[in-house]
Design brief:
alpha/beta; 34% helix; four-stranded parallel β-sheet; 18% strand; 12 helices
Amino acid sequence: DVLNELVASTHEKDMNIILDFVSNHVHAQNQVFVNHPNWFTALDLPDGRKNLRLWDEYRLTTWFDTFLPDLNLEIPEVIEMVSDSAMFWVTNYNIDGYRHDATKHISTPYWRTLTKKLRDESKSEFIFQIGETFGSRELIRSYVGTDLLDGQFDFNLYFDMRNIMASDNESFTKLIQSLKESNKYYGSHSLMGNITGNHDLPRFISFAGGALKFDEDDKDAGWSRDIQVIDTIGYYKLLQVSAFIHTIPGIPVTYYGDEIGMPGAGDPDNRRPMKFDRLTVFEQMVKDQTTQIIKERRDNLALIYGDLILLHSDDHTMVYARKYFDKVSIIAFNKFKQAEVLIIKLPDYLNIKELTSEQDCNFQLLEDELEITLKPYSYCILNKD
């Protein structure tokens, strides 16, 4: 059928397909709810309230809406039923993994059962599982492990990155500290997802391009006015986001449309139809440079597996390196409206004698120092061959 054809043609291109899987709830008309209402959590709470969207107070039982009953995944029969459903797609369609919706609203025994089934019963050597959890790093980490999910989206790092890279008056030193925190919680070589955005959040460029303010109701903005890119500096700030997520440890995740700088306020304005052609000059520029960033990561083992070495940060600039055996990359950013000249002392163990760059970067090596001139709102990736 169509899905089998899609998976086969995708695999022929040496690509993978990951399905979005919802384990937490079904529609009220679903036959599982109709036939087994006792398999679901209660909508009415003892205090008379409805157990609706109580994301943290009743994290494991809350309903998303009155027509979306919440599966009670503490019941063994329910665990078996839902995990078997997930196995169906792997077994019959040879998919490569799952993006798991609402991960934190399900307790870990279910995830352990599903992960064991995927490893014991799947024909594939590796099925990738990445979860979606809004919450603290402690909560996010509690679902990641050898017997749980392979990774989750790092929303805490994303929010810090968004606020700092979209705003001129936020410091890169804060972003370096956030990056350190993520490495502390998830490890230096994790499979965490580093995102440009997602379907629940306003698009980054709408903040960076001046169409949205952080202190307004972003959903209401999408209904009340036409959100477009007002300041074209937003495109360059978006490219810094892409460069950042593709050069730090973890897995870069580009939300559709961010590869060209599509605008959008809060849900549902952030889910506009994809724009495939008739790109503006700025959209084509973002697409071309994003393509180059992705190619650099794919072809550079240092950007995939390298150790992270933090070299410099201040209010406007940030520099770090990735090192994998003899391969080294140095990544620099300037988020200021004026050019910045940096002189960075290079550790001896990097053993750098020569550097090259695919970007239009102005730099020179001076013994054990790197002097680099960064244009306003720019990034530069330097590689030791």
